[in-house]
Design a protein that fits this description.
6 strands; alpha+beta; two-stranded antiparallel ribbon; 132 residues; 60s Ribosomal Protein L30, Chain: A; four-stranded mixed beta sheet
């Protein structure tokens, strides 16, 4: 029920889909940051560690809604440093695959001046579609 979309002639994307078409029950996860959501504390100021925790938080919201990472159709990443993001790309890829597997939805990454929580370096919003 989830189909990756790529216009004819476009190069194969790496680590994301150019587009996704899906049918089913839609699940939206609010922006998740790299903290422990039960204590609202950060275990680390490391960019990759915060991204891993944010991905784990997204996965937890999906599970709570009866969805799985394979149901993701969209991820929007908000990061406070393009330099830190680029420096952590290998670790980010490993964290992504560990938490969400080899499923790559449509994604956007925006560099922002700050996030609401002062220590937050990354925030990830998610949309999933669970087939009916």
């Amino acid at each position: 029920m989830i189909e990756r979309v790529r216009p004819e002639g476009w190069a194969e994307p790496i680590g994301y889909a150019d587009g996704v078409a899906a049918r089913g029950r839609v699940v939206f996860a609010a922006g998740q940051i790299g903290w422990d959501p039960t204590t609202k504390t950060f275990a680390s100021d490391d960019f990759a560690a915060q991204a891993r925790q944010a991905l784990e938080n997204v996965a937890a919201v999906l599970r709570a809604a009866g969805a799985e990472p394979r149901h993701l159709v969209r991820l929007s990443w908000f990061v406070t440093s393009k330099i830190e993001y680029r420096a952590a790309r290998r670790e980010l890829g490993r964290a992504y695959r560990d938490v969400l597997g080899d499923h790559y939805p449509a994604m956007s990454l925006l560099v922002v001046s700050a996030l609401l929580e002062d220590r937050a370096k990354v925030e990830i919003e998610a949309t999933a579609v669970v087939p009916e």
